[in-house]
């Protein structure tokens, strides 16, 4: 922690002032709570985190947290949409809409996530995200990279994604996505022909590599691990179990993705903690078995976030699939869940209530852990001096009051 004197240097009146001081807050650190804290943000960086003693620097904008919390901004690595838009709509406007909605829910770093779809749709989505990323806006969630999620899913684990948009990976197709330089997270079902080449290419590109929408066996997971795979998308959703692997490969019964993640200490996974996908005991089980360094939270949110109940489309607005948003979650017409309808603040509150874990552990799972796993932890994920000033001010009941992106208030006066 820096002494607060370090932020009281004299500035000439002509210099643009960008100093925010958050007072009367409990700071949520990666390993504990710091009551009676003051957080100083200057020129887009976290300049000090400590006990409040002196009065705020004269040029500062002071935010009184009124006894609430100051948290690092959330990092969401698996998110499709919000505010009526899906990233797959493939226009800069759609991308801005989604990033604005998730910023209001505390997400300051976002990885737009592809669904199944035609190659042209995926390229349009990546191009639209590049436009918005390059705008460098500080009033919406910042795009840290693309999560190439669809289309390389197993045919029997497509979930709510459009089936026609699913295929096996080929170097001709996936090398063009990687060539954009924007793909930072790469998902593929481990049992597909061509998965090994996909994983090795993703590793050469420095991606965080994940297996999802898959019915893989232990052996297939082990092969994928050797090729660089280190993560499984939304634990227990659209993934294999011992019985699903038996149905596919017969006896003797074999280990599945579930056992592989639990037993291999280098593997991580994520949960959709919206209270609709997984029960409280499953969230507790995942937290106890994996801990806050190997488990993190994602929204996996659809375009239904902050939208009234009704029928919506998952994925591309024209070629996606229909689902019904009941105000809590998306449901496919044939039954089955179709993505969450909630922002990350909701996931934090649900995980806290379900697990009884300390608040700092739950917030870590929404910020530092996903930042570490995706290689962003030097820059974001915790209230650490020198990191980007991505901060959320929360009420005592963990409702979002203000969101600060890169040192500027993006949401909440
Ligand atoms: Zn999924």
Explained architecture:
It is globular, with a radius of gyration of 21 Å. The protein is 27% helix and 26% strand. With 413 residues, it is an alpha/beta fold. The longest helix has 17 residues, at 119-135. It has helices spanning 92-104, 119-135, 171-179, 195-204, 218-226, 242-249, 257-263, 280-290, 344-355, 359-366, 368-373; strands at 19-28, 33-42, 45-51, 61-64, 69-72, 74-79, 81-82, 85-86, 107-112, 142-143, 146-148, 183-187, 208-211, 231-232, 268-272, 295-298, 310-314, 321-325, 329-331, 337-340, 391-394, 400-405, 408-411. Helix 3 (171-179) runs parallel beside helix 4, helix 8 (280-290) crosses helix 9 (344-355) and helix 9 (344-355) runs antiparallel to helix 10 (359-366). The structure holds zinc ion (ZN). Zinc ion is lined by residues 159, 213, 233-234, 238.
Q: Which keywords apply here?
A:
alpha/beta, Urease, subunit C, domain 1, 27% helix, 8-stranded mixed β-sheet, binds zinc ion, disordered N terminus, 6-stranded parallel β-sheet
Question: What is the topological layout?
Answer:
Elements: E1 19-28, E2 33-42, E3 45-51, E4 61-64, E5 69-72, E6 74-79, E7 81-82, E8 85-86, H1 92-104, E9 107-112, H2 119-135, E10 142-143, E11 146-148, H3 171-179, E12 183-187, H4 195-204, E13 208-211, H5 218-226, E14 231-232, H6 242-249, H7 257-263, E15 268-272, H8 280-290, E16 295-298, E17 310-314, E18 321-325, E19 329-331, E20 337-340, H9 344-355, H10 359-366, H11 368-373, E21 391-394, E22 400-405, E23 408-411
Parallel strand pairs: 1-4, 1-5, 6-9, 9-10, 11-12, 12-13, 13-14, 14-15, 15-16
Antiparallel strand pairs: 1-2, 2-3, 5-21, 7-8, 17-18, 18-19, 19-20, 21-22, 22-23
The structure holds zinc ion.
Residues 159, 213, 233-234, 238 line the site of zinc ion.
């Amino acid at each position: 922690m820096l002494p607060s004197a370090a932020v009281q240097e004299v500035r000439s009146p002509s210099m643009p002032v960008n100093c925010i001081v958050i007072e009367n807050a409990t700071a949520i650190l990666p390993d504990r709570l710091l009551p009676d804290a003051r957080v100083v943000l200057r020129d887009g960086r976290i300049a000090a985190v400590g006990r409040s003693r002196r009065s705020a620097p004269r040029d500062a904008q002071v935010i009184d947290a009124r006894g609430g919390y100051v948290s690092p901004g959330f990092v969401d690595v698996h998110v499709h949409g919000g505010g009526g838009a899906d990233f797959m709509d493939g226009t800069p406007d759609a991308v801005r809409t989604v990033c604005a909605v998730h910023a209001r829910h505390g997400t300051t770093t976002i990885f737009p996530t592809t669904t199944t779809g035609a190659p042209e749709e995926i390229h349009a989505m990546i191009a639209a995200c590049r436009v918005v990323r390059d705008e460098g806006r500080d009033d919406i969630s910042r795009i840290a990279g693309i999560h190439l999620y669809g289309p390389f899913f197993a045919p029997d684990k497509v979930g709510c994604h459009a089936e026609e948009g699913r295929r096996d990976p080929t170097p001709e197709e996936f090398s063009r996505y990687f060539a954009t330089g924007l793909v930072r997270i790469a998902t593929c079902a481990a049992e597909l022909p061509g998965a090994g080449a996909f994983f090795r290419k993703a590793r050469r590109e420095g991606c965080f590599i994940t297996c999802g929408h898959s019915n893989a066996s232990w052996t297939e997971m082990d092969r994928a691990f050797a090729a660089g795979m280190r993560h499984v998308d939304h634990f227990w959703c659209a993934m294999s179990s011992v019985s699903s692997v038996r149905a596919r490969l017969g006896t003797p019964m074999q280990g599945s993705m579930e056992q592989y993640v639990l037993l291999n200490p280098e593997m991580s996974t994520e949960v959709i903690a919206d209270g609709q996908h997984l029960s409280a005991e499953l969230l507790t089980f995942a937290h106890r078995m994996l801990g806050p360094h190997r488990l993190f939270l994602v929204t996996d949110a659809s375009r239904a976030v902050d939208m009234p109940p009704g029928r919506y489309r998952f994925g591309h607005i024209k070629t996606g699939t229909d689902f019904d948003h009941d105000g809590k979650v998306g449901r496919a017409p044939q039954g089955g869940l179709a993505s969450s309808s909630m922002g990350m603040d909701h996931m934090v509150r649900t995980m806290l209530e379900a697990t009884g874990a300390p608040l700092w552990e739950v917030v870590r799972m929404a910020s530092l852990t996903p930042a570490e796993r995706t290689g962003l932890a030097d820059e974001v994920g915790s209230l650490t001096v020198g990191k980007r000033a991505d901060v959320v001010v929360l009420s005592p009941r963990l409702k979002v009051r203000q969101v600060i992106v890169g040192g500027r208030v993006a949401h909440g006066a």
